[in-house]
Amino acid sequence: MKSFTFSYTPYYWLTVSSLAVLLFLSGLFVSSFWFSDRWEDLFKGNIEFLAECDPGLTEAQLITIENRLSKIEGIQNLRFVSATEALKIMKTELKELALPDSMDNPFRGSFRFTLDAERVDTAYAKLLERDLTKVDGISAFYYPEDLYGAVRSRLKSISLVTGAIGGILLLLILVMIHHQIRMYIMQHRYHIRTMSLVGATRGYIRRPFIIEVLKMSSFSILVAGIAYFSVLLWIGHVVGQSLFASSLDMVVLGMLFIIALGILMSFSAAWAAIQRYLESTDARDFI
């Protein structure tokens, strides 16, 4: 028997690209939903605290302060930043908005550090501030007032928006795939009817349509997977920690969900479309 030939219209590629966007958003949503605590810890561990030192301290005094700070439980990545280094950092970040060279350096030397994620909360920060300001040579302690509150609120908003967009896309893409298969069926309805009359089974008739829609979903899964990994690499670069090393299970779960959802959606929409046609007594019932 003559095999089916399928045409790839702009509508076909619109369906592929839309499905890829849905799968990409779904992968991110699943990763952020099931591992929300881990995302919080990841960002908490990158919040920087600053203990400002008195001016004119000797190297011996700075070493004493550093030893004192390093013994405090929870403090990580402790480093000293001189006033000159602080000014250079500001100029690098602000560029033309930075202070002119004619002005005196307003910064002082400081010790900067991060905390264990489990210790990043306002109560502990205030307790730490009280203890550090009592240390000889430390004049002030600075940290974000809301600490992780703003980031947590932003992550929740992003998750809700992603979930809402994904839900809408899910319905639209099911309809698009279903409509794409209907167009294929109508293009080959006489061929299908001929095969039915000569005794071809429903499985034989259904097979090329299922294979075609799975091929379509494979393109979408590939694009969504590349975008998903790219975003995780970018996030890892921002936070200075590879998610593929520290959270491999999260990465794998998101990718498995992308693959499973892509196959399930495509297969179910194609199956429903061809099944509806095969169960109709007249092709006109399907139009």
Question: Could you characterize the architecture of this molecule?
Answer:
The protein is an alpha+beta fold. The chain has two domains: 10-41 and 149-285, no CATH class; 53-141, 2-Layer Sandwich (Alpha-Beta Plaits), CATH 3.30.70. It is built from ten helices and four strands. The protein has a four-stranded antiparallel beta sheet with strand order 2-3-1-4. The longest helix is centred in the middle third of the chain and has 39 residues, at 149-187. Mean pLDDT is 77; it is low at 281-287. This is Cell division protein FtsX.
Characteristic terms for this protein:
single chain, 287 residues, alpha+beta, Alpha-Beta Plaits, 2 domains, 4-stranded antiparallel sheet, rod-shaped, disordered C terminus
Shape: rod-shaped
Number of spatially distinct domains: 2
What's the helix-strand series? Answer: HHEHEHEHEHHHHH
- Main-sheet strand order equals 2-3-1-4
**What is the terminal separation in angstroms?**
25 Å
Mean pLDDT: 77
Strand content: 5-15%
Level of helix content? 55-70%
Give Rg in angstroms. 30 Å
Count of DSSP H/I helices: 10
Largest sheet features: 4 strands, antiparallel
Low-confidence stretches: 281-287
GO cellular component, one term: plasma membrane
Protein name: Cell division protein FtsX
Membrane topology: Multi-pass membrane protein
Subcellular location: Cell membrane
Summary?
It is found in: Cell membrane. Helix content is 66%, strand content 8%.
Detail the topology: elements first, then pairings.
Layout: H1 10-34, H2 36-44, E1 49-53, H3 59-70, E2 75-81, H4 83-94, E3 110-115, H5 122-132, E4 138-142, H6 149-187, H7 189-197, H8 202-239, H9 243-246, H10 248-278
Antiparallel strand pairs: 1-3, 1-4, 2-3
InterPro entries: ABC3_permease_C, FtsX, FtsX_ECD
GO biological process, one term: cell division
Protein name: Cell division protein FtsX
